Amino acid sequence: MPKFVYTAAKGIEQQSGSGFIVQDVPVIEDSETVSTSTACATYGVTLLEGAITATLASGSYAGQIKTFICTSFSATTQVTLSDALSVAGTAATTLAFSATGELCQLIWNGSKWNVLSLTGSATVS
User: Fold this and answer.
1) Which residues in the chain show pLDDT less than 50?
2) In what order do the strands lie in the sheet with 3-7?
């Protein structure tokens, strides 16, 4: 397979070698807004709105990042994880948000989600 290089100035160019390289152009992750209880994407950013219980399935590869942001709080704004989450050495299956603007960032380690950051009074249990 030839090597393809994408740049903002020239677009896609074919070169000798192999692979696909993106240079000097931002790669932006997908985002979604969830306002009903449903399964959410396992990648990118999910904006949580209102009284919902979203679910998050297993990741696809080690190092995968997932971010949740509570944009409209309700007493039942939460995310249920299909795989136990590692929080300070304990297993957890629910992320609960308690205010608008809180966020939780997770990383998939190949077998479970791990918390990278958790803001405000959001909890993991």
Assistant:
1) none
2) 11-15, 3-7, 19-22
